[in-house]
Amino acid sequence: MPFDRILIVDDHLIIRKTMADALRAKRHSVVTVETIADAEKAIQRNNIDVVFLDVRLTDGNGVDLLERLSNMPDRPLVIMMSGHANIETAVECMRLGAFDFLVKPFDIEQVEAVFKKAQLLSRMMKVNRSLSTDVVKSFHFLGDSPVMIALKQLIHKVAPTEATVLISGENGTGKELVANDIYNLSSRSDGPFIKINCAAVSDTLMESEFFGHEKGAYTGATERREGRFELANGGTLLLDEISEIPPRLQAKLLRVLQEGEFERVGSCKTIKVNVRVLATTNRDMKKAVASGDFREDLYYRLNVFPLHIPPLRERTEDIPLLAETFLSRACKRYGHKIPGFAPETLEAMMRHPWSGNVRELQNCVERAVILSPGNSFIEPDALGLVPADPIARPAAAVAPAAVSEPAAPAKRSAEEDRAALPSLDELEKRHILHALTLTNGNRTHAAELLKISIRTLRNKLNEYKLGESAAA
Predict the structure, then answer these.
(1) Please, which residues bridge with residue 61 across strands?
(2) Structural domains in the chain plus CATH codes
(3) pLDDT along the chain (472 residues), means of 10
(4) Which of 44, 177, 264, 445 lies at 20 to 30 Å from 339 by C-alpha?
(5) Sign of dihedral through CA atoms 296, 298, 301, 303?
(6) Radius of gyration of the chain from Cα atoms?
(7) What single string gives the DSSP state of each residue in 86-149?
(8) Contact 347/206 with Cβ under 8 angstroms?
């Protein structure tokens, strides 16, 4: 994500030309001026991303221009330069929002180093703004089943707090969407929202990704870099797939969660941060603790407020709503006009086990939109579903070699199709069990989430023989 336009403000021709040539050699667009007046005109005319600004100029003090730039809504990053620098001037510039301070004489390597650092910060700022915008515009976690209503209620309760949230569920259930909703509903929604997929980062680089590193900390560390905790200061950090963090790093993660402090790799300077942490996992964390793969104290520090997202096969009544939503979006994306799903298509979706959960459903619907002709209902074949348990065919359905046309496969009756779906009793049983899981076995709270009386809940537990398995 390169800068579109760079402005160099210096009254020394040689400095302007040397810097401009070096940056243009990297294929950057550069504008050079020698006065504050010309700099202000250039900023008004152009979309300036970064400014190299000298402190002493022929028509004034560069610090005054820095102060004016700091009040702009989309202000550029400003790197101050001076050959007469002192600590007071540098501190004042940083207080007014300067990104960095270069002391003359400097070499091109110093310019390139600070410029790369500015690019990194700009990239993270743009990514964060994009993520925050996506969260605001994105749909809230979809589902009208009782367990999803209960989950939404818990999201609304925990979002305004500072509690650490551990979101668990199978792949494709929508853990990141839940994290987005928590962030969007929190008091930190105006702050940064930084995400890191722990499963996608190698063990050797994970510490640097979390806490940053100093120049020369290891081979290839050619410049200082801020880590995700530092970038998320004042906002929220999502640790996706937290169970993949190697044991050697878990103690350091526990420290930053408890104390709010850490050191960059290669540094002994302690950095303080104020970060709210959300984490996701697709593993059974209690088993990971029992096996020694995950620290018990770290697990309990992360599991302050647990949220579990049930797999799609346990909330099949949400499938029509999800499918229609994905259909509408796919039609808009590809410019197709499809009125909906054929009844047998909805039945096929309700029968499918959805091992990939909501993500698999979304991909199937998008594929069906691409394959289906316009102005016609989506047929089952367009979904491309492979049944987990193929329906047995009678012997007569297998075509002998002498028969030119194969016999049509046997169709199940409507009664058989309905029998393949979870019964109402089974769905009710699942909802009750999930409500008890969400409330850590508290029957009073579970009854509130299910919107039934405690007596009704007790009767249901007895009816389904759940008394022993459900916590008191």
Answers:
(1) 56
(2) 6-121 (3.40.50.2300), 138-308 (3.40.50.300), 314-394+412-419 (1.10.8.60), 423-463 (1.10.10)
(3) 76 91 87 93 84 92 89 81 82 86 87 82 57 44 85 93 96 93 92 91 88 86 85 93 92 94 90 95 94 94 95 93 92 89 91 93 93 86 70 36 41 47 63 75 77 78 67 42
(4) 177
(5) negative
(6) 29
(7) -HHHHHHHHHTT-SEEEESS--HHHHHHHHHHHHHHHHHHHHHHHHHHHHHHSPPPP--SHHHH
(8) no
